[in-house]
């Protein structure tokens, strides 16, 4: 995506720009920073971003503002950051969708590896298979039989192709060999509103967006997609307990556009680590069924490794399922 400077005069201009960038990095940040969340407000990615951004604001001495750019399963917001100035003032907080989109979209407007500088991993969030409160099946075993019987008559909410909720739905449908009717939203925040209102049957979404409603009995929870039950939802069985072959955890990462000054990336990584070590953040994450990554994982290296290995992993799963955005 980025232009390659071939001419020596242009190379000279670039050297001057780099020198200016270096001076700028010393004062960084000198203005508010925008973190683009590629899904609607009020959803699980937004929740993680706002918790982390609050502590990063205090740590960096500048406001870290969250901007929601939903659409196209997270690819719209990611594309916006890929094309943004690489000055450290526009960042992207995205999840596993960074690794699934390259296999789902033939014409992705960015390269998930080449167009971003990784800053660090943030957290891994389990998912929950949930339904409107008056949905007929009572247990995961009932649900499996109900899906197999009713297939396309069931409406399944997701946040578009490339979203975590879409990936989980894909895994459910693949495991059961049936198709449900997918209803896309700009994020699972608005999808949850419709689930609560009974306009949609079911969804698979991160615990950061379902814990409160499950605990309040406002929606039905059939399973968690983690290998063990969760402390915050001890009555919800694992998918394995109910005989569903599906395990998935949603990891989140923070990115800057490619070419951002390494000194700025270093400052942002340190600030992310400070946010993840913060007691309020850790407590809220725990209440929502998730834990921040360790300091060693909140690094550019760990995020780069995770991203590239997950791109390879999901490429195989998605090719086998025969799914694409076209
Ligand atoms: C969101 O923040 O709305 C979600 O992460 C959407 C999803 O990926 O399912």
From TrEMBL:
Keywords: Receptor, Signal. Residues 1-25 form the signal peptide. The keyword Lipid biosynthesis does not apply. The keyword Signal applies. Belongs to the UPF0065 (bug) family. PANTHER family: BLR1237 PROTEIN, TRICARBOXYLATE-BINDING PROTEIN. This is Tripartite-type tricarboxylate transporter, receptor component TctC. It comes from Pelagibacterium luteolum.
């Amino acid at each position: 995506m980025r232009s390659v400077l071939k001419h020596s005069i242009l190379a000279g201009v670039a050297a001057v720009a780099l020198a200016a960038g270096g001076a700028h990095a010393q004062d960084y940040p000198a203005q508010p920073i925008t973190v683009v969340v590629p899904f609607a407000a009020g959803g699980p990615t937004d929740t993680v971003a706002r918790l982390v951004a609050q502590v990063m604001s205090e740590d960096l001495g500048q406001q870290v503002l969250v901007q929601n750019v939903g659409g196209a399963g997270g690819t719209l917001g990611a594309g916006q950051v890929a094309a943004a100035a690489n000055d450290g003032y526009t960042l992207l907080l995205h999840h596993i969708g960074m690794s699934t989109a390259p296999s789902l979209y033939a014409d992705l407007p960015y390269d998930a590896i080449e167009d971003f500088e990784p800053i660090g991993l943030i957290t891994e969030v389990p998912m929950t298979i949930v339904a409107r409160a008056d949905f007929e099946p009572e247990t995961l075993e009932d649900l499996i039989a109900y899906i197999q019987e009713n297939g396309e008559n069931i409406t399944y909410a997701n946040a578009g192709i490339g979203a975590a909720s879409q990936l989980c739905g894909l895994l459910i449908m693949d495991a059961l060999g049936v198709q449900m009717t997918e209803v896309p939203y700009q994020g699972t925040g608005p999808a949850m509103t419709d689930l609560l209102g009974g306009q949609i049957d079911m969804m698979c979404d991160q615990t950061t967006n379902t814990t409160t409603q499950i605990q309040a009995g406002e929606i039905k929870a059939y399973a968690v997609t983690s290998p063990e039950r969760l402390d915050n939802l001890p009555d919800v069985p694992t998918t394995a307990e109910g005989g569903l072959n599906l395990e998935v955890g949603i990891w989140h990462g923070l990115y800057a556009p490619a070419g951002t000054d390494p000194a700025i990336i270093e400052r942002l990584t340190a600030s992310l680590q400070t946010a993840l070590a913060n007691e309020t953040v850790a407590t809220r994450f725990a209440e929502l069924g998730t834990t921040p990554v360790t300091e060693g994982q909140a690094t550019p290296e760990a995020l780069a490794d995770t991203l590239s290995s997950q791109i390879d992993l999901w490429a195989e799963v998605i090719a086998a399922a025969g799914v694409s955005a076209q």
